[in-house]
């Protein structure tokens, strides 16, 4: 899989892409993630990417030309399954959507800034708009990072124990069960006895009950 991220702040992705699971996925050749600096596609000497909004009002708008030149340049090289714009008014990101996107071959993610991007880019070039929640951030870089992580960690071969991701919250109808590690007694707080007994059927039953209880208490809507 290949993910191309279009941004005016490519350095924001450096630490994120160069550590842990994301790094391992790239090293193993399971995913290729590239960032593209939209300023390099600006047609003017000052490398501007934004301008005043028609009709007036506070806030600048990202100009169409640098974005469209970048998108079309990439599209000349390969076919993209999705050109995604991260936007607070988009479709809400869910595990089901991340699962679906993890099966694609080539994805572009466009990070907005300022008041957002010119509507004509959304109308003409964007195939899907995704929000990471009902709140507004300063830019699309963190949302693109969230979406990238959600997609990449479930690509087969990325996690050392794939079954772990399949049992996570939201993969089924229940939230994940509580987890414990050593020591068995931490400041008088003990690990549930059943988890140390080695009876796998009993452990599974305990986890199922604990998941069901947590889901009932926290997410009765699920
Ligand atoms: N004026 C826009 C609105 O009210 O819908 C918000 C613009 S926001 C300040 C700048 C950029 O941050 C957006 O273009 C988008 O790329 C990104 N962004 C902010 N919040 C987001 C969210 N919840 N999900 C996805 N992207 C978001």
Q: Nutshell version of this structure?
A:
The protein is of the alpha/beta class and 222 residues long.
Would you count the extended β strands for me?
A: 9
CATH-level-2 architecture of the largest domain: 3-Layer(aba) Sandwich
Radius of gyration from CA coordinates:
22 Å
By oligomeric state, this entry counts as single chain
Order of helices and strands: EHHEEEHEHEHEHHEEH
| CATH fold category name of the largest domain | Alpha/beta knot
Could you tell me which ligands this complex binds, including any ions or cofactors?
S-adenosylmethionine
**Roughly what fraction of the amino acids lie in strands?**
15-25%
Distance between the termini: 31 Å
Helix content: 25-40%
CATH top level assignment of the largest domain: Alpha Beta
What would the average pLDDT be, to the nearest integer? 96
Total of helices: 8
Q: What does this 3D model show about the protein?
A:
34% of the residues lie in helices and 19% in strands. It has 2 domains: 2-152, SPOUT methyltransferase, trefoil knot domain (Alpha/beta knot), CATH 3.40.1280.10; 173-218, Trp Operon Repressor, Chain A. The longest helix has 19 residues, at 200-218. The protein contains 8 helices and 9 strands. A 5-stranded parallel beta sheet has the order 2-1-6-5-7. It has a two-stranded antiparallel ribbon with strand order 3-4. The chain has a two-stranded antiparallel sheet with strand order 8-9.
